[in-house]
Each structure stands twice: as C-alpha cells, then as structure tokens.
Amino acid sequence: MKRFIQGEHRTQSTLLPEVLDDYVTEENPVRVVDVFIDNLDLQALGFEGVTPAVTGRPSYHPVVLLKLYVYGYLNRIQSSRRLEREAQRNIELMWLTGRLTPDFKTIANFRKDNGTSIRNVCRQFVALCQKLDLFAESLVTIDGSKFKAVNNRDKNFTKGKVEHRMKEIESSINQYLTELDTADRHEPEIKQARTERLQQKIVKLQTQMKQLATIKEQLDEAPDHQLSQTDPDARSMRTRGSGIVGYNVQTAVDTKHHLIVAHEVTTDGNDRDQLCNMATQARDAMGVEQLTAIGDRGYYKNTEILACDQANIKAIVAKSVTSTATAEGRFGKDDFIYDAANDVYRCPADQLLTRRTSYQERGEMQHRYWTSGCKNCPLKSQCTPGSERRVTRWENEAVLDDMQRRLDHFPQAMRIRRETVEHTFGTIKFWMGTQHFLMRTLKHVATEMSLHVLAYNMKRMIKILGIIPLMQAMVK
C-alpha cells in the first residue's frame, strides 16, 4: 500500500483525549438545531418532564430528546429504532446529546406523549421566520396532498368494497360446490382428497363471509360509513393514479422564500372546505391584517370564498367549468353580463334578463333571471334547447365576481401557485421515501407532520440565511 494516503492503525493510542467539538465544524447544520432548541422555553411550550421528579430514576431532559428528533427528521431518520442506533455511532448526535444514548422506547414515547408541544415548536419556528421578515407581503399559496397511512388498503372497508368482496366470496363458494359434485364421480381415493381440500376452502370462505357481515354492521354505525382496522382515523381517498388510504395534508406556503407558513392534517379527502381555514391560519401566523390566498380549482366553493372575504382575505381560485351548456357547445353563464346597477343580465343577443323569482337552496338564496323574448331569438339554438334561457345568481355572487376580476388582472397567479406550493410536497415526500407515516391516528400523524414541516423550514432557512447568520438571529 505504498504511495497511498495512509490511515491510522486501529490500535494506535493518542496522548491527549479527543474533543467531540473538533469533529463538528462551525458551519455544521447540527449547530442550528442545538442553538434553536436551547433558546426555547420548553415548559411554556407544554413539554412533560421539564421539572424532574424528586424521587425515582432520573429521566432524560426533553431538550435531549427533542434535539434527537429534529436532527433525525433533518437527516431522514424518522424511526425511533434507527435514532437509537445513530445515537450510539453518529458523532454529530454524540455532540448534540452529550453522548447520551436513550433506548428506542424512550425516544418513541417522547414523540407520542408530547404531540401538542412539538406542534408548538413548529409554530415557534414559523414565528422566528416572521420576526426575520422572511415572508412575502401578504401572499400565500394553498394546496393539499395525500399521504399514505400505516393502514393497508385491504384493511380499509367501505360499503362498496364489502359488497363487492361478498359477491366474490359467494361466487367462489358456488364454484367449489360445483367442484364437489364433480369430485363425487371420481374414484374413492381421488374423491376423498378433493372433497377434504374443497371443504376446507369453503369453510374458510364462510368464515370470511361472517367477518364481512360484522364489518358491514360496523360500517352502518360509522359516521362516514368507512372503517380502517389498523389506523382507525385513516381514510380512503382519491388520487390521480389510484386510491390511497391515508391523510390529506394541507399547507399554506409563502411565495417569497417557499416557507411553510401553516399546515394541517385532515381526514377529509376533499379540499373544498379547507380554503378559509388554511388562509386564516396563514394570516395569523404571518401577523398581517390582509392576505391574498391562491388556490387551485379543488378549492372553489362559494361559501368558502365568502368566508375568506368576510375575514379580510382575498381569495384567488380558478373556477372549474361544470356547465352542461358549455360542454354541449352552447353559451355558458360567463357569456351573460350582469348589470349590478339595474339587477339584470345582458345576453349575447343583447336582450335583458330580469329577475323573476327567488328561492332557498341548501340554505342559500338564489335568484332566477330570464326573458320572454327567447322564442324568436336568432341565437336560440346556440343558447338553450328549452323555451327560454334561465340564469341563476347566488345572493352573494358579487364576491365571486370580484375574485374573478382579481384573477383576470393577475394571470400569473396559477403559475406562481404551482411553482410555490407543489415542490414543498415533493420535497417532503422525497425525504420520507416510499414509506408511509410511522404513527397511527390523526393526533399522532399531525405530530409527525409537524416534525417534517419543521425540518423543511429549517433547511430552507439555512439555505436562505446561512448557518452562522441564522444562529445569530436565533439568540437575539
């Protein structure tokens, strides 16, 4: 091995003891974790065990375990068992924890028992970002993404799944009964062997049928008629590819530095009811009075947009084209221009549609407009197959009109939304790898997601400010 760089012999002793601090450079990200957590008031954040018990075996201070977890999520080590191993061999973790090596059960229990406090730490870091003026001036983008839960798809049941599976089992049982009749016509030895095998299969299927009948009864009692056996809070949700059993994670992301301002884990697979909630959380986290929130078509819901307007939040959401008339090539509602001063619609044939009636639909007041001059209109074939074209207007539709005008004057809004919020989900899912959430139930999954968001925001801050300036900002 001559003419190569030589390493030290394993049995070589040193005159002076090694110092761990020499192995951790001044610009190592682990120092950011150390400074950030050391400057937190863990008792005010609600952590258990900050004040030690007078008697009993001494416990690990929450600072140590919190540092362990934040470091783990920064470095894609989410498992408590892997963190236990890393604490015994990773020099950075030895430096961070003072060579303490808690076992995996202690590490796992800390995350399980301090969920609310860990979520508060994530909010505290967002507050630090706000203090450093890193957010754009009152502009965020909102989106949701489905994350896989511990629950397997075969352990999730809906009425449709159960009925389909029961039909399959019934068909299989009938097939095996037919094969039993066929086996009776063979020689005794063959008949006995086939009969025993088929009867075992039939008994097994009948047992599954009874289990499915019990599950069907439980589904009738469930509020959303869905049952997950491994993680009771996980829900079957639609995705672009195929369905997934998991959670819908909502985020509001700042457009300046792509920092996650607010997030929430929900069991609702639809985004339509999440706009005002997430926008309000983002406004409060950013400490502003007015906010503009951009969402995709999945967030378009009139009552949510109205709630945003009442909360001093300007929503910009693209509208989905659901008009039957437009789909069939006729004039859509957008072709009818509303005159607010006279409360009439002007149609493409320059006729006025006046308000004729009003009614309640799902608790909302709707107004109907039409004109009696449609029969002789030369554009009738392009407008309606009925006797007259009727246009419905919601009592608060002026809010939707204002939002459409904002979108028309801000055509790059959807591009900004796509470039801002979608990559945050891609980054976090890449860090998670192919695995799912490690914890079960909504409460604990929310804790796990907060650690992912904290790690994401911390990496973004390191990239934006640098390690030493960030540490200096934390201690001010």
Automatic annotation (TrEMBL):
Pfam families: DDE_Tnp_1_6, DUF772. Keywords: Coiled coil. Residues 347-462 form the Transposase DDE domain. Residues 19-112 form the Transposase InsH N-terminal domain. The keyword Coiled coil applies. The keyword Coiled coil applies. Residues 195-222 form a coiled coil. NCBIfam families: transpos_IS1182. PANTHER family: TRANSPOSASE, TRANSPOSASE DDE DOMAIN-CONTAINING PROTEIN. This is IS1182 family transposase.
